[in-house]
Write a structure and sequence with these properties.
mainly alpha
């Protein structure tokens, strides 16, 4: 069961990275990162590592949000 939880966390990270590569426009990335981080954070305490990586991706999303050409 624990391994399943950890796998779910890594799947979330993979989904975030895939979204980041497809949705360079920052707004969608920011929203999806926040949602997946919130889900990840509440699933299982052992996913703290996965969530830490998720925070990094959220920061990328925020940076993309403010630097995206579509926001100007």
């Amino acid at each position: 069961m624990v391994m399943l939880m950890i796998a779910a966390g890594w799947i979330l990270i993979g989904a975030q990275i895939a979204l980041f590569s497809y949705l360079i426009t920052g707004y969608y990335m920011l929203v999806t990162s926040m949602l997946s981080f919130a889900v990840c954070r509440t699933v299982h305490p052992l996913l703290i590592l996965a969530c830490t990586l998720g925070i990094g991706i959220v920061l990328f999303g925020i940076a993309g949000f403010f630097t995206s050409p579509t926001q100007k």
